[in-house]
Write a structure and sequence with these properties.
32 helices, mainly alpha
Length: 699
Amino acid sequence: MNLNLSDDILKKIFWMLLGAIFILMVLYTPQYGITGDDVSQHNYGKAVWAYLSTFGADKTVVTGKLLENTQTLYGGFFDGAASMMISVLHPKDEFLFRHYWVMVFGFLAFLATGLFARELGGWRAGIISVILLFFIPRFFGESFNNPKDIPFAAGYILAVYAMYRWLKNIENLNWKHTLFMGFAIALCLSIRIGGLLLVAYLGLFYAVVVWQKKMFKDGKLSTSIKHLVVAGLCGYFGAILWWPYALEAPLSHPLEALKIMSSYPINIKMIFEGHRIDTSQLPGYYLPKWLSIGHPLYLLLGFIAGTLLIINISKKFNNKYLWMIAFTALFPLIYIVYNKSTLYDGLRHTLFTVPPMIIICTMFFIYVFDVIRNNAVRYAFASLVIFLVALPARFMFANHPNEYVYFNEIEGGIKNAYGIYETDYYMNSIMQGYKWLVANELSKSKESAIVASNCAEPLVEYAKVSPVPFRPMYSRFYQKNQKEWNYAIYYGRFLDREQLQHGYFPSSMAIHVVKADGVPLCTVLKNDPERNGFKGYTAMQQNDLPKALEYFNKAVTKYPDDLEIWNYMALIYRNMGRMPEAQQAIDKAMAISSVDIQTANIAGEIAMQGGDFNKASKIYGDLIEENAEMAEAYLGLGKAQAGLGNFAMAIDNVKHAIEMEPQLTPQGYMALAYIYNKKGDQATAQKYYNAAKSGGGGQ
C-alpha cells in the first residue's frame, strides 16, 4: 500500500478518483428505480416547501395524514429543498431529479470519508478509504435512490469530520472550524432527529479532550465554551429552519420527535431467518446478524480488528482521535441493540455507520501493511485485502443496478439468502421490469394495456413518464386472478420462504425475470389470453361453482404453480362436499407453500371436516411456528384442539387469537360457542353464540 509516490501525485490520484466516481454516479443515476419511500418523501417535500414558501400559512405538513404517519417528524431539508428546486426548474421527470439530489449526498459521503481519512493518514489513506467505501454494495447501491438513509449518512460523516477538525484545533480555535461544525450538525439533524446524537457526541468528546489537555487550568476553556455554544446553536436552529413541525414548537416538538422515533411506530412483516416476522417481534440479534451477512468481509474484519487495535494504530499515526471515530461507528449499533429500536429492511437504517467503519478499516490495513517487515508477507497481506475487495466488486459489476441486494460469503451469497432474508425490499428492480415491458411488449401494441403490480405508487409514477401509455393497477401477487389485466410487474416481497423457493414466484406466467446472481427479484407476467383465472374467480363470486371449477381447471392445466387457484378449487370442492378432490387440490397448494396463511387455514379446515384433528393441529402448529403473531392460526388451532377434547387449551388459544386480532371477535366467539357446546356447557355456549351474532359485543 506504500506506493512510493509523492504526496503531490497521491493528491492528484485522490481527486482523479473522486472525479471518476462522480462522473460514474451521474451516468448511473437514471438506471435506479423509484423506491418504497420515494413517493411519500416527495409528497412530504412538497408539503414542506408549501409551508416555507407561504411562511407557515399552508399547514398541511403539520396536520392530517403527514402527522399521523410520523412523516412530519423527519427533518425537511432534503425533501423540502428537492421540492423547491423542482418548483423552480420544472424537470420532466421529478423522481429522476430527486435521484440526482440523492446522488449528490452519496458523493458527499465519499468525499467526506476520503478527506477525513486523508487528514488521519495522508493521501494514501484517503485513496484507500474511497475505494473501500465504493465497494460496499449496499451503501453504493442506495446512493442513488434512498432519500432518507444516504443523506443522513453523508451528514453524519461530515459532522464527525467537522468535530474532529474542531477538537484537534481546540487550543487555537477559529470561527471557520466552528461554523463548519455547526453547519454539518445542522445538515444531519435537518434530515433525521437522530442527528441529536451528534450534539451528545460533541459534549462527550469535548469533555474528554478538555480533561486530556487539562484546559480547565488555563483561560482557553472559556473561549472553547463560547465556540461550543455557537456551534450547538447553529446546528440546532439551522436544522429546524427546514423542519416545519419543529418551527411550530422549536423546543417541545423536536423532543417529541426524538421520543417517538427512538421506537419507530411501524409494524410490517418481513422475512428473517426464513420466517415471516413482525418488526415489533424482532430478536435482539437482528442487527448483529444482518451486519455479519450484509457487509463485505473486508469491512467486518478490518473494522473489528481496527477497533481492537485502536491504541496501537493511534500510536502509529500519532493521532489520539481515532478512538472517537471508532466510537461514532460502534456506539449507535450497540445502542440500537440495547434500546431494541425498531429496524427493518436489513442494514438500511445503519448505513450512516459505514463511513466511520471504513475509516477505521483503512487505518487498520495501512497499519498492518506498514508494520510488516517481510516483503513477501506484506504483499501477501495486500493480495488478501484485494481479493476480499474483489468479492463484492464482482457482485456489483455483475448485478448492476441491484448492488444493494448483496450478501457476503458467510451467508453464501444471495442464492443462499433467497427466501431466508429480504432481497429487493426497496423495489429497485421494478424499473428494470417496467423498461423491459415497454420496450418488448407495450411498444408493439396499439392499445393501452392495463399493468398490475404490487408496487402501485412507483408504477403510477412510471406511467407518467412512459413513452408508451398504459394504465397502472394495484394487485397483490397472491390475488392476481381477482382482477383483469394484460401485464403485471411484481417483486417478491411479502411472500413466504416456501412460495419463493418452490417457484410460486416468479410464476409460470413470467415472460421476463430480473435476477441477481440467478435469484429472481422482479417478474413481468403476461396474462392468460383466455383469462381463465379471472373468469373462474368471477363465477365463484357469483356462486356458480361448477362454472368456476371449469375455468379453474383450465387455468391450473396451463399454470400449475398458481397457489391462489388451487386454494379456490379446494374451497369449492369442500363446499360442494367433494372431499377427496378438495384434499387433492389443497395438497397441490400445500406443496407450493405449507405456511401460506390462506392455504394452511383451508388445509386445516378440510382436515377438521374430515375428522383428522391431529393433522389439523399440526398444520396450525406449524403455521404458528412460522409466524407467532398470526391470530388466525391460533383460532384454527383452538378449533382443532376442541376436536381432540383439549378444551382448556382450545379456549386459551381462541381467546389469544381474539386478543391479538379484535377483528376476529365474531369468528372467535362462534368458535368458543362450539367449544363450550362440545364441553357440555350449553349456557356459556349460548352466550358466545348470541354475542357472535350481535357482532362480537357483550362479552
